[in-house]
Amino acid sequence: MKRLHRLLAALSIPCLVTLGLATAARAYAVAPAGGPEALGFSSSRLARIAAWQQSQVDAGAFSGAVAAIARNGKVAYLRAVGFRDRAKTIPLQPDAIFWIASMTKPVTSVAAMMLVEEGKLDLTAPVHRYLPELKDMMVGVETKDPASGKTDLMYEPQKRPMTVEDLLRHTAGLVYGVGGTKVDQLYRSLYGMTGVYRRDKTLADFVSGLAKLPLAHQPGEVWDYGLSVDVLARVIEVASGQPFDQFLEARLFRPLEMVDTGFHVPEAKLSRLVDPPAISGPPDSVMADVTKPTKLFSGGGGLVSTAADYLRFCQMLLNRGELDGVRILSPATVKLMTTNALPSDIRFAGSGIVGPQGGSTWGLGFAVRSDAAWSMVPGSVGSFNWMGTSGTYFWIDPAEQLIALQLIQVAPSMGGPFNRPFRNLTYGAFRVPDQGVPDAAAAPVRIDSDTLAAYAGTYRLGSPSSRDMQVPREFGGLGVDVATENGQLKVVSPIRGMPAAKAGIMAGDIITHLDDAAIQGISLNQAIEKMRGPVNTKVRLRIIRKGQDGPIEVSLVRARIRLQGAADLQVVNKDGHLLIEASGDLPVLDFEKGAAITVVPMSSNEFFVDGGDHTRLAFLRDGAGPMRLVLNPGPWQITGQRIN
């Protein structure tokens, strides 16, 4: 493993391309002859990942990126693009060390489940069994005086104690304190020179300070991202009898040969550390300072790692808890962790990623793709993932035996726009199995100009990949992100240029009625379903706004909402030939933007690309309906419809 890291540090990016593959560790044997193709990928389409990342580096979005993709236990892609430093003077290498931020949480969750398997930790036990100081935490509830409009914070006891399971699934009522509520304001007292969430404090110090604050929600009632996994790290210390960093080193990192993963970067490895993003305030600023040893072993976001190390961690999970003969968890435990753990009536606060809007739920340490119809990213149902605030991101797709991760460093919570293109480009690189090369030269096909002209136009595809669940890229809606808070439907943010923003709806507004029907008590996904509908149809909202006397009535017309990642193809009839190129946000199979390809006819409505991956196409029409375009007809087909 150490030899591998030295090898990767010595190799230039062109050398990596020449060799084709680099192995992450002995679990990843060099791929068979044929490289990525032997693992089901197109080399040319995988190369689009580096090209896209380079375009982001050139645009100043981030200084550099390392991406890794493994399938069937072997590495298909491992490449660094850009620079290690923000000044863009030092080329980035594949063995670069990144602060992985909240990609720490899955590691902490695995550590906790190891203790559950050993009988040292009980998922159903109240947290105060292990941390007695948290037993009497109250729940903060904001109340508003209707006469004065003044908001006060009241306290009520927990209806039931928070459990260890609540910590794993973010239903404990603990938050980060980054919002605008009075409870959030109290949580911000944990940070700074007088707080307890500092690198010179311990997890025990942190928990003692946390015990003086109220919970933001009743345990078990709301999914809200926060400090739960940092508390879980302290629970692990108590249950194991070891400092958290020592437990991870002895029980996870050393057995899995994760040689560059820890809570700080030793001096001998600082030359491989990627400059962290510019961060102005806690909690991120506390965790991102990884150049010196720390006493606060943040289970929520304190680790550094490399692509090679984290691939080993992911491969252990994909192998259902085992790697290279080392058993970390049982298959049953891995299945439990990657299956929905949330009750059906759970409310979601402050997240469009987990919950109905994101087509995902939460297991014990991971977001799990649960609803393809609502998901904004491709992948098999049952895929699980998480990300870090600095832009680090990974997912595991058991159905495809796929692991992919991208390590970048961007400003806090700005990584989302870079995750989706990487995920789309990864699935878009899958080849269609046993795609033969048609022999059209033996019997040339001639098609009349009127028929060719009928095929011209722009086609919108459900997806750029044959390997996902055909994610819908547009729908009729209001263009507003919402969340549930204290049983109310709260506007998180209206989208610029969409109906909600044009109508003056503001962040913080409370939506009480949809078309005269009260929405108090309905689930978030039910509310979203009601807000969506056919384009150009009307919906009435009744909202309550802070500082406004009485409710406000708003009438809106649903507009076409187009999600990032549209896959469009432009078909042009020119001089008796069809020319096709990608015209949306993403390339599609052999087709890219700005590189029109002349397709070869096989019949009056069937064509193929004479080169690349030999994509086949069929133009179909059902009666008087719009023309459809089918790529690679058969079990792996991608279908689109002409939109103009």
Describe the model.
With 644 residues, this protein is α+β, with helices and mostly antiparallel strands. Helix content is 23%, strand content 23%. The strands form 8 sheets. It has a 9-stranded antiparallel sheet. A 7-stranded antiparallel sheet has the order 2-1-15-14-13-12-11, with helices on both faces. Among the domains are: 449-472 and 564-642; 475-562, Pdz3 Domain, CATH 2.30.42. A hairpin with a 2-residue loop joins strand 25 (567-574) and strand 26.
β-sheet strand percentage: 15-25%
- Mean pLDDT, to the nearest integer, reads 87
Low-pLDDT residue spans: 1-34
Strand order of the largest sheet: 27-26-25-16-32-31-30-29-28
C-alpha-based Rg, rounded: 26 Å
Sheet with the most strands? 9 strands, antiparallel
- N-to-C CA distance: 55 Å
Share of helix, binned: 10-25%
The total of beta strands comes to: 32
Give the class from helix and strand content and strand pairing: alpha+beta
Overall spatial form: globular
User: With helices defined by DSSP (H or I, 4 residues minimum), what is the helix count?
Assistant: 16
Architecture blueprint of SSEs:
Blueprint lengths: L1 H9 L2 H7 L23 H17 L4 E8 L2 E9 L15 E2 L4 H14 L21 E6 L6 E6 L7 H6 L12 H6 L15 H8 L11 E3 L3 H13 L3 H10 L30 H5 L15 E2 L1 H12 L3 E2 L2 E2 L3 H7 L9 E3 L10 E3 L4 E3 L14 E4 L5 E5 L4 E6 L8 H13 L20 H7 L1 E5 L12 E4 L2 E6 L2 E7 L4 H4 L7 E5 L2 E2 L5 H8 L6 E7 L7 E6 L1 E4 L4 E8 L2 E6 L14 E2 L1 E2 L4 E3 L7 E5 L7 E4 L6 E5 L2
Parallel strand pairs: 6-10
Antiparallel strand pairs: 1-2, 1-15, 3-7, 4-5, 8-9, 11-12, 12-13, 13-14, 14-15, 16-25, 16-32, 17-24, 18-19, 19-20, 20-21, 20-22, 22-23, 25-26, 26-27, 28-29, 29-30, 30-31, 31-32
